[in-house]
Amino acid sequence: MRKALALLAVLISGQSAHAATTFGDALAAYFLQNYDRAFSEWQELAAQGDTPSKFYLGLLYETGHGTQQDVAKAIDWYRQAAAAGHAEAAYRLARLARQTDSLPATPETVLAWIKQAAEGGIADAQYELGAFLAEGKLVARDLPQARDWFAAAADSFSDPAKQRQADQMRQMVEARLDH
User: What's domain 29-120's superfamily in CATH?
Assistant: First the structure.
């Protein structure tokens, strides 16, 4: 009778008796700082090809949460996620390439990662791409595109100070265009 009631309770709740790991379960564990559980669950999901799980495994390896810190493994997971279109993974790769010796990359590769991240809505990448275009750094100078990327960054940032900074850069570029 108890088994039947337990099975009925599971069926009523909409879950199977052996519920599969979901991305949400892993994310909840991560935000509760249960990094070991998040790591384990994201490993399972990444093995099934889940792109966001690949990104988060990279993050855990980069920070050493839930596993031993290993930047080389972080880079591997970020590469897999970025190759599948994950914008934040592309931005992390660009950042690691510029800030560490762990990821040698050509300037063109770094620019491609930043562009992928910017197109994917990552505000910091939008701002950086705008700066590159305004300065002619790694790309030909293109003030109209720079203005557009600064405007996109201003719209994407949640921090009001960063919004103002991006908007000020957009206005400076517009002033250059008017002259």
Answer: Tetratricopeptide repeat domain (1.25.40.10)
